[in-house]
Design a protein that fits this description.
The chain is mainly beta. The chain contains no helices and 17 strands.
């Protein structure tokens, strides 16, 4: 997206990155949708899971922040949440 910032060593694959997103150094974003003005910390992993039948995505709403070294997998995160710990297969209200 417009104004998105992606740090050195970061891997983004099979994902949608919307306007104003910041992904810091060495993070991994796969099979995910990052909403406007969200941020992903250093060494964090934001991942969905591809399967033979369907793909499970991780979706961030507007203004979500995932701190350094956090792993978020197959989850939906509603807007304006700050994530300090790992989450798997959850809907975060």
């Amino acid at each position: 997206g417009v104004g998105a910032r992606i740090g050195a060593g970061t891997r983004v694959a099979h994902s949608i990155v919307l306007d104003g997103v910041e992904i810091l150094e060495n993070a991994v974003v796969r099979y995910s949708v990052l909403g406007w003005n969200s941020s992903v910390g250093k060494w964090a992993r934001i991942e969905g899971t591809p399967t033979d039948c369907a793909t499970k995505y991780t979706i961030f709403g507007i203004g979500v922040t995932a701190h350094d070294e956090v792993v978020i997998r197959n989850s939906i995160v509603l807007p304006l949440k700050t994530l300090y710990t790992d989450h798997h297969n959850e809907i975060l209200l």
